[in-house]
Structures are given as C-alpha cells and as structure tokens.
Input
Amino acid sequence: MGRVFAEIDTSLRSFIEAQQMFFVGTAPLSAAGHVNLSPKGLDSLRVLDTRTLAYLDHVGSGAETIAHLRENGRIIIMFCAFQGPPRILRLHGRGEAFEPIDVEYAPLRGMFPPVPTGRAIIRVSIDRISDSCGHGVPLYSFEAQRSLIPAWADRKGEDGLAEYQKLKNRESIDALPALRWVEQP
Output
C-alpha cells in the first residue's frame, strides 16, 4: 500500500465518514514542548471539499491543539480502520482554530450538532494525503459513542462551562496561549 493521493476522492471520503474515531496530532515549535495526540469521536468531523476538513473541538481538560495551531498551524489527522479491511489514512496540513468570537465560526458551527460543549472549530487545509496498510491495527467492534460529555455539560451549565474553559483552556501545558475569548472581559 503506502500511497499518496492528490485529493480526498469519493472513496477516501467514504472511508473518512465511516470512521467513528480519529486522532489529531500537533506539536509546539520548541523541542522542549510537549507533542499532543488526541482521540476524537462523537459527530464531530466534516469533509468540506477535496482538500479541506473541519471538526468540532469540544471543551476538554486541555487546549493543546488550539495552542499549537495558534503558534505554528501544523496538524495531522489520522484515521484507522478498526472494522473491515485494514487501512490507516493520514491527512497532513495547516490548521486554524475558530472560536465563537471569530466570524468564521458561525457558518462552520451550523454543520455540527448543537451541543453546548463545542468550544472551537478546527479547519484543516490538507497538503498531504497518504495511506498505509494498517495490518497491525486490531479489529474492534463499535458499540456506541459515549454520552459523558453531554451529561457533564448539562451538569455544569452554560456559566459552569465558561468558567471551566477560563480555568483549564487559557493556555497549553507549555504555557502557550490557547482560547482567546477567555481573556475578554
């Protein structure tokens, strides 16, 4: 296998849309900084065109991806086939993080479910698309998406979510700035 593709064609798009989970990798410029790898699920990914995708970034205990994108834009999205024929698909590119304070956020946000935990939209302009065999990836059966994030958000409420983000998502673990809206009065 090990092919490089010019674009996300119909076959690749079908593969991407069939996956229940994907992984996002980013890193700071500093060699002393921490590389970040995050698993993502829920109904949070959209293929926008043959070289662009976006995903809804949910409130979490950190904001590494947002901080790294603000610093340098480098990102990789990886999909693994846990069911069916083996395959790993990697999308390398440049990412941008849009918060509710950004004009780009609202049009993109409408593409995703109206959950209160959507703190940002990550849009990725893809510059390299490649796959590999995935023969070492185990087979798993998908059971269901977890309901913990929505339940947690309901318990927190709108004000609690805002306070949580101000506390936990202001900067990365390497002290890089992350969410910008938390700095506003």
User: Anything to note?
Assistant: The longest helix spans residues 148-168. The longest strand covers residues 118-132.
